[in-house]
């Protein structure tokens, strides 16, 4: 059985392990300060938000998201920034449930939509994303500062 809930203080180690695996999946390395800051932000729940998924009581999935205004809509939008499921739990509906929970959360706060990015080569995730959302064909550019 999959359950979705906000982060709890006792989730710190399991959450950080999954977040580190997510960062590694995208071939990045983050210093400890990044994880500490994110944890503080998620626990305060003011600017950034997180939900976790448990499968039979074990924490196996995380999602991080935030709300921001939109220049082209009257309502705010929700950016689902990070989504990760432990490899042993993939294919069991964990990511689908996390996405649905973020959508419910955003809807309850009057958001117009939820959106996210993934790498073009992330075929496994894209199979799910193509089932639950619309790919509008945008390409992301970044300007490092």
TrEMBL record:
MF-aspect GO terms: acyltransferase activity, transferring groups other than amino-acyl groups
Limits of the N-acetyltransferase domain: 2-145
PROSITE patterns: GNAT (PS51186)
Keywords of this entry: Acyltransferase, Transferase
Gene3D superfamilies with a match to the protein in the record: 3.40.630.30
InterPro entries to which the protein is assigned, alphabetical: Acyl_CoA_acyltransferase, Bact_Acetyltransf, GNAT_dom
PANTHER family per record: AMINOALKYLPHOSPHONATE N-ACETYLTRANSFERASE-RELATED-RELATED
Stated name of the protein: GNAT family N-acetyltransferase
Source organism (scientific name): Amycolatopsis regifaucium
């Amino acid at each position: 059985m999959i359950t979705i809930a906000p982060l709890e203080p006792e989730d710190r180690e399991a959450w950080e392990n999954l977040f580190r695996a997510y960062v590694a999946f995208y071939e990045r390395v983050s210093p400890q300060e990044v994880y500490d800051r994110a944890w503080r932000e998620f626990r305060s729940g003011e600017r950034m938000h997180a939900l976790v998924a448990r499968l039979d009581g074990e924490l196996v999935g995380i999602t991080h998201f935030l709300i921001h205004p939109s220049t082209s809509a009257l309502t705010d939008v929700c950016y689902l920034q990070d989504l990760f499921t432990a490899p042993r739990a993939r294919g069991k509906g964990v990511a689908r449930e996390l996405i649905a929970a973020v959508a419910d959360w955003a809807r309850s706060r009057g958001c117009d939509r939820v959106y996210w990015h993934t790498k073009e080569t992330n075929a496994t995730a894209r199979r799910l994303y193509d089932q639950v959302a619309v790919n509008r064909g945008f390409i992301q550019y970044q300007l490092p500062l």
